[in-house]
Amino acid sequence: MPLYTPGFMADTHRIYREMRDRHPTLAPVELAPGVPATLVIGYREALRILDDEAHYPADPRMWEQHIPGSCPVLPLLQWRPIPLRNTGEAHVRLRSAVTAALGRVDMHTLRSVVERTAIPLINTFCESGSAELLTRYAFPLTFRVLNELLGFPSEQGHKAQAGMAAVLNAADTETAQRGNEIFEGVLLEVVRQKRENPGEDLTSWLMAHSAHLDDVEMVHQTALLYAAGTEPTCGLILNTLLLMLTDDRFGGNVLGGAISTRDAIDEVLFTDPPWANFCVRYPRNPQLLSDVWLPAHQPVVISSAACNNDPEVAGDRTGNRSHLAWGAGTHSCPAQPLAMIIAQEAIDQLLDALPEISLAVPPDRLTWRPGPLHRMLDALPAVFPASVPLSTA
What we know:
Elements: H1 6-10, H2 12-22, E1 26-32, E2 35-40, H3 43-50, H4 61-64, H5 74-77, H6 88-103, H7 107-123, E3 130-132, H8 133-150, H9 154-169, H10 173-196, H11 202-208, H12 215-246, H13 251-255, H14 261-271, E4 279-281, E5 287-289, E6 292-294, E7 300-302, H15 304-308, H16 336-353, E8 358-359, E9 381-383
Parallel strand pairs: 2-7
Antiparallel strand pairs: 1-2, 3-9, 4-7, 5-6, 8-9
Helix pairs in contact: 6-11, 7-8, 7-16, 8-12, 9-10, 10-12, 12-14, 12-16
């Protein structure tokens, strides 16, 4: 089953059901033409893999040796000196620095940063009666919040945002590479500035950690925080807004106080997590799991979206946060508390300002970004009664 086709993105849950009819827990797939992998769609099998780093390490370097540089999924899966793509002592060292830095973020201050960022953005479109919420709100909000947390000066933050936008929106590899060069160049520039003048920010805290990250490692950690903080958080905001604007269980009940925005976010983390198929492991040797042989050094991709809806563990999800949207085990996402606050506060600010907001098009006209690993909207156009700008005092 190819995961890179428009048909897969158009109706992923139907595809997962069809897979399960033939392969109850482990399904053979292609991540790109000629790039085989195994998609884990069984919840219990996913936990066994994620809890067994000895047999299922996250380091892709043996796999990479046989993958052409033009492979479209290689930029996302290739080895880098980051916790996500390492195992053993290297993973422990890098993750300890990232976790310690994230642990120093004050959550009350983070809420204030999101509010201070959200209101001016809402003011740019609230009088017009319509807005495309990806480009006008979710993406610039998450990126600017990350800029502030990382301690990036405004001008360099804008350059970094432009570079990342070029990577994400590029129609060809050459444009994406140029955008990435701009992005990493800005990161290196700021890292060197922080060496001379550290501050109270994530970049400086990473630098001060006993892991003694060098400049190359610092660039990769800050790039990871940008990418992991912007893309999935932005996707979580949009996917949750879509649910709230189309599902009667959530929209009116959230505004009426019967359920919380957090409940809506948790539902999305079960059904449409932004990184739907992103936790990847590479068996050291052939492994037999649930009567299926997993080849050595071939990607084993945990489908959190499919595993969360495994009939073997399905049930009432009210107050249930046992989903795999953040991964599990030693590689679980250390930034999830920050991402949850950013997403929840961003949604609450928008709905408080524009309580009568609705979709500008029928839901079946919305499209999803192509790609085997994520579940993110191309755009989310909305309409609402025009309103006066909010106070920024």
